[in-house]
Design goal:
heterotrimer; A mainly alpha; B mainly alpha; C alpha/beta; A: mainly alpha; MetI-like fold; B: mainly alpha; two-stranded antiparallel ribbon; 12 helices; globular
Chain lengths: 269, 329, 254
């Protein structure tokens, strides 16, 4: 019995452990707080600040965009349509299917979309692509919690004369705030960690982007590129960058747990 | 027993008289214009939200159509059969045979599933049938965390741990291998697929009713027998769905595999041979694809194939799950 | 009957779920400013009847409603009637108190706010008034900003009462409003309902006969989706005409 559990926990500890153990020695403060200087990829001075900030901006923008689309949809599915509605069933099915589409396909489609609307590789194109990737992840996670809102609670709001819109945004959203937040953070984490979808669309640059139309570096790609060089020092930095990314992801996960605790104040159980 | 129906003139519907001197603040229905505004808002929201809700459904088709649109160019000049079964990939000479890539994808996926399915099913059974509640609750976030690790991190880990391991294993067996191989890709993929299979099968197992379990236990079955004869049998369909979902996840995974699999476009002959999966092909060549004729079209075709395969798997798995849910409920 | 005036008139109400008939041809007048108690064994359609008054039966779940319900002389199932307007006329207390996920103050202010009251002072006075009316003010006046979910269950139910009253309904509906409460809180809520009947029409569903005896002015006995007997409370309790009512009152059916 212990064995199976050991496997899951073991894999997790093994992976995170290896990355941190290999990455920390190579990690210097300058790596986090500097952008690449000339010859960075040949082993010279600099850091991955461009990639860290790029990833945060990209995942942040994408998460915001995905939230703006998925929250209304999820509320619609649960407040406006009945529990046995066919539309709702079809939409949930679509989310399930979209959830399974590989990120590289989102990347390819994002590339087509980008060319179609006349963008070049840029932060904006990356945001659009990653938002598409995050949409089903966020919506499914949100739907899971919003679905659990007790019928009696929405009835209580209706009986006060509230419209469905008011019930959705003033009652359902507040009731499920912790769950919504978790869904947002899960999607954000996925957005930060995904490389295949931004490969085509976000480009890569050593500078920190100052506008949506400039290309942006991302952390996963920085790791990938550094690992691909023949220089030992640069490969060491890839490990360090991977450690940064891992810690970032773990931190987001922890924050989401803490947030759930903090914001469940109002939640009625 | 009926009595006189009240008319408006009887004062029904008016504010009740308050004795404690408190104001009736609102009109019976609020000021009429504000009420109208609220209702219009509600109606507008309903329309708008309905439109928005169509987005995910349409997105699937738009994606398929977009990729197909781009892939048409190459499909017009080369028969699909030759593209899929051709062994030569030389874009600069107009050769776009994808067999090696398809074989590479298939090989890593099969290896991954062979490793992942028994282990993750066993884990799921253990967690749902044997583990105490507390352990199950502790394991959930671990599984989620494993699922949440970026694929690049898996890739780096694979390079650091699995590749050297495979290299040593190969030399012990007297095979020469750099370690960057189908086997390495398969192992890394297997771990990435664990969470998906575990998650879905846990859900399926939990839908097997407790009464059924208790009934079996009361007949003198031990836990393992209950797990095998009742839970596993009852959730056979769900398990198939879980495996298929895992399969489709493995099929489309890109970065982690790409980093450990070697990327040599040849049909692999052994586990220790390098391979070149389809997603890696896309990821590695996005840069050049615009400079060679038909190259972009070929890559979009590759993306389309990926999407179609994964879509088929997913739709099938979801159908199975929905059907299983219906028969269970 | 003398002295009763009709506030709600239910005429030939049928509610079906698929082929199952939940409520069968109900015709019933509910008196104005009295406490009407609907009793009957569980599963007889009491809650459905109550929810039909508030139009909370969801057609998307396969429930079909036929018939008319006149409130203040207006058929609430007529197609041109607008549902939020109907619902506002009735405050609803559910079995388990359903406080909204916000502060105590915001709970009571919910209805006034959505119906257009913005001014802070008036809002504060309104909230105070209704909390007093529900008998909760003294207990919560120092912590209006705390989440309503931190109140005890009994307090929550009274908060729901205050919240419902703040929507300025003429009718209070209670769906076994004391079933989740301890005896002390139950008594508190019952007393509130009795106090309120001088201004409001109260309709309460319960399966506790003793509670019905304590508070009812008018009794409706519902059995398997049918109204078996209804009338002034003393009359029904002392001289039930239908054998089924008698059986229920003596505890043979429950």
């Amino acid at each position: 019995m212990g064995l199976a559990l050991f496997l899951v926990v073991g894999c997790l500890v093994f992976i995170v452990g290896t990355i941190v153990w290999k990455g920390l020695p190579a990690l210097k403060l300058s790596m986090i707080f500097q952008t690449p200087k000339g010859g960075f990829y040949l082993g010279k001075e600099g850091g991955i600040l461009n990639a860290i900030l790029g990833s945060l901006a990209l995942a942040g923008g994408a998460t915001l965009l995905a939230l703006l689309v998925s929250l209304p949809i999820v509320l619609y599915l649960n407040v406006y349509t009945g529990r046995r509605s066919r539309t709702a069933g079809f939409i949930r099915f679509s989310f399930d299917v979209l959830w399974g589409v590989p990120s590289i396909v989102y990347g390819a489609f994002g590339f087509l979309l980008m060319v179609f609307i006349g963008l070049r590789t840029s932060l904006l194109a990356g945001i659009l692509t990653v938002a598409l990737l995050e949409l089903p992840i966020m919506s499914r996670a949100m739907d899971e919690v919003v679905r659990l809102v007790p019928r009696d609670l929405t009835d209580a709001a209706y009986s006060l004369g509230a419209t469905r819109l008011e019930t959705a945004f003033r009652v359902v959203v507040r009731q499920t705030l912790p769950g919504i937040l978790t869904a947002v953070l899960i999607a954000f984490g996925r957005g930060i960690g995904d490389a295949a979808s931004v490969l085509f669309t976000a480009g890569f640059t050593d500078r920190v982007p100052t506008s949506l139309l400039q290309p942006a570096a991302t952390l996963p790609l920085a790791i990938f590129f550094q690992l691909g060089t023949p220089f030992a020092e640069v490969r060491e930095r890839a490990y360090a960058s991977a450690a940064v990314l891992t810690v970032l992801i773990l931190a987001i996960s922890l924050i989401s747990r803490a947030a759930v605790r903090k914001y469940s104040r109002h939640t009625i159980r | 027993m009926r009595f006189r129906l009240l008319q408006k003139s009887d004062g029904v519907g008016k504010k009740p008289q308050r004795t404690d001197g408190i104001l009736a603040v609102l009109e019976t229905d609020g000021p009429a214009p504000s009420r109208k505004r609220r209702l219009i808002k509600d109606l507008a929201a309903r329309r708008f939200l309905f439109g928005l809700t169509l987005v995910p459904g349409l997105l699937v088709f738009v994606m398929l159509f977009g990729l197909f649109w781009k892939a048409r160019a190459i499909l017009a000049v080369k028969p699909l059969g030759r593209l899929l079964l051709g062994t030569t990939w030389k874009p600069s000479q107009g050769e776009f045979g994808m067999l090696a890539f398809l074989a590479g994808t298939l090989a890593v996926t099969v290896v991954a599933m062979v490793i992942a399915v028994p282990i993750s099913l066993l884990t799921a059974v253990t967690l749902s049938e044997y583990a105490p509640r507390r352990m199950r609750h502790a394991a959930r976030p671990m599984v989620d965390l494993l699922a949440g690790l970026p694929s690049v991190v898996y890739g780096v880990w694979g390079v650091l741990v699995i590749v050297p391991f495979v290299e040593r294993l190969a030399s012990m067996l007297g095979v020469s291998s750099s370690g960057y191989s189908i086997l390495a890709g398969g192992i890394v993929l297997a771990i990435m697929v664990f969470p998906t299979i575990i998650h879905v099968s846990l859900e399926v197992f939990s839908s097997v009713s407790k009464d059924l379990r208790d009934a079996a236990l009361s007949l003198g079955a031990n836990r393992w027998e209950v797990a095998k004869k009742v839970v596993l049998r009852k959730s056979r369909q769900g398990i198939i769905a879980a495996v298929v979902l895992g399969l489709s996840r493995a099929f489309g995974e890109t970065m982690a595999v790409l980093m450990v699999v070697g990327n040599i476009p040849r049909v692999p002959k052994s586990l220790f041979d390098p391979g070149y999966p389809l997603p890696a092909l896309l990821a590695n060549n996005y840069g050049e694809m615009m400079s060679v004729p038909l190259y972009d079209s070929a890559l979009m075709l590759a993306a389309l194939i990926l999407m179609l395969v994964v879509l088929t798997f997913n739709v099938a798995a979801r159908m199975i799950l929905i059907r299983a849910e219906r028969t269970a409920g | 009957m003398e002295g009763f005036r009709t506030h709600i008139s239910i005429q030939n109400l049928n509610v079906n779920h698929g082929s199952r008939r939940i409520l069968k041809d109900i015709t019933l007048d509910i008196p104005d400013r009295r406490i009407t108690v609907i009793v009957g064994p569980s599963g007889c359609g009491k809650t459905t009847l109550l929810k039909s008054l508030n139009r909370l039966l969801d057609p998307s779940e396969g429930l079909r409603v036929h018939g008319r319900i006149l409130v203040d002389g207006e058929n609430i199932y007529s197609p041109d009637v607008e549902v939020t307007h109907i619902r506002r006329k009735m405050g609803l207390l559910s079995q388990k108190p359903q406080v909204l996920p916000m502060s105590i103050f915001d709970n009571v202010a919910f209805a006034p706010r959505i119906h257009g009251l913005r001014e802070k002072k008036t809002l504060a006075r309104t909230v105070e008034h209704y909390l007093k009316l529900a008998g909760l003010w003294e207990e919560v006046k120092d912590r209006l900003a705390t989440p309503a979910s931190e109140l005890s269950v009994g307090q929550q139910q009274r908060l729901c009462l205050a919240r419902g009253l703040a929507a300025e309904p003429g009718i209070i509906l209670g769906d076994e409003p004391t079933s989740a409460l301890d005896p002390q809180s139950s008594k508190h809520v019952e007393q509130r309902l009795i106090d309120l009947k001088s201004d409001y029409t109260v309709v309460v569903v319960t399966h506790i006969l003793r509670q019905a005896k304590r508070i009812a002015d008018y009794i409706v006995f519902l059995y398997l989706g049918e109204v078996v007997e209804h009338g002034p409370a003393e009359k029904v309790f002392e001289r039930p005409r239908d054998p089924r009512t008698r059986a229920y009152l003596t505890g043979e059916i429950s």
